[in-house]
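Pipeline run #58 for the internal structure catalog. This entry was flagged by the ingest filter as a single-chain record with no existing model, so it goes straight to prediction. Upstream metadata was stripped on purpose; only the residue string is passed forward. Reviewer on rotation: M.T. Logging verbosity set to normal.
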Amino acid sequence: MTSPTAFAHAGTSPTTTTTVTTTTSAGGGDYDTTYYRNAIGKTGASLKTALNGIIRTNTKLSYDQVWNALKATDQDPNNSANVILLYSGRSQSKTLNGGDPNDWNREHVWAKSHGDFGTATGPGTDIHHLRPTDVSVNAERGNKDFDMGGSPVGEAPGNYTDADSWEPRNAVKGDVARMLFYMAVRYEGGDGYVNLEMNNNVNNGTAPYHGRLSVLLQWNAQDPPDAFEKRRNQVIYDTYQHNRNPFVDHPEWAGSIWG
């Protein structure tokens, strides 16, 4: 079942938790004859290699620059003073970021310990997988792989967790999958960065792997890219890194590579 992305109502309170559905139009266009021209028609490993050649040429940000970038990429379409928090769907003031309770901070969707790349420029600062999240929710997710099941997350209804995995709310399941797919294609170890790969495991620890692939492929199909995700991809391309997440433009490519 496809789930619409849940956004928070814009209002006078910067931390309102009521969620609604947005119909904001997405940016983007047909990049097949330009940006993706060297990938069109390829499948499997050849497609993965071609996409790496396309998206690896990108502007790098510092970890400090990520703060301002996320304020633009994850802006609430109903309130330009706020960002949408990934797991909770809460609309929160852009200025309430930091390390205090109920602030938002920078979540590495591909856990930075999976490959031990930390917050150094490169995979540690790539905003295609960095998202605003509530500080304590970010801590509860930790470096867990993604899978189905667990107990409800009190501060982020619709999310579930257990000792070794995290299940995000339905509205962003596909977003999470496509961010991980991007990382596994962008970082192939050939440009001085760690080689990241998908696998079908949890408990990957410090190994440069993320899972569970079979579930993430299901989520990619279940929750196709919506207006918010497409706009985000466009803002990153136009303003910040000048590269795209190909799985937002072509979700079917995940199945071609890993299916």
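catalog note: The longest strand covers residues 79-84.
catalog note: Residues 1-28 have pLDDT under 50 and may be disordered.
status: ready for reviewer M.T.
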